[in-house]
Amino acid sequence: MADESHQGGLWGTQTSAEEISELYAGLKQSYLTDFDIMLTGYAPSAEVVDAIGAIGRDLKLKASTRMGSFFWVLDPVMGDEGRIYVNEDVVPAYKSLLRDADLILPNQFEAELLSDVKINSMPELVDAIAKLHKDHRIPHIVITSVRFDPASPIISTVGSSSCTNGLPRLFKVDVPALDCFFSGTGDMFAALTVVRLREAVTEKGLLGSKSWRSPDDVDAPDLPLAKATEKVLGSMHSILRKTKLARDAELQKMSGPQGALEKDSEKRLHLKKTKAAEVRLVRNLQDLVQPDVKFRAQPLSRSEEWNPAKLPLSNATN
Fold this sequence. Notes:
alpha/beta, single chain
């Protein structure tokens, strides 16, 4: 079970770095570590990030003689909208893992923290992606929740799979923004990406290639990562749209003719609205299995492509 801070508090205990390491040691001793994909997400401290990193590196070492047999998806959960909600030492801890990950899934703010590039425009976002490819040799990057104007009716997801020379192949997928706060969408995106990327890579016969990288002549919108992103966003937008409709109906019902909802305390009102907006995942399974792919990946325009001359001099000379 997940404990979300937006619900008004935190209960229970956190799993320590020592416990995570001991659990993995037990799996390893029992020969139960034949994983082909690892998805890692929220970690509250640098010690936990380090423990996760040690596991990821051990699994990569074990798979090093079988190209493509292990793939690490790293979701560096640190914050959003300019606010960090983990310990400050988590940021450098995550940076130390980037070179070992095959795919990272930061949101716009987290991409700033990892790249040290302030992102206020699409060209700056492209610079951040190029820098992450160049400095950390990350094969695949997807940046979520990209919106430079809070009033924009569009939210973008921007991705890239690097060429063998480290240059990015950039695409973006635009979806209509929904006027509703949802919790857990980052975890939902990450989990669906694992499934859809493996599916797309299998279709292209790339499971045996290093980091599931496509040949350099594959255009950005045709990358397995782009095709996976299209399906993921198709599922998510449909489910979130239906969740919002259900939330609106539930809030309308709670309000009633006497306006009872408005008479609640601020905290109680917040909790009711949060509960009403819980993602309707299970009851919309069909949208997960057969997504309506309406939003297509597009290559970024020339003005938004990477310009190495715009990188800071200290990075260009690394």
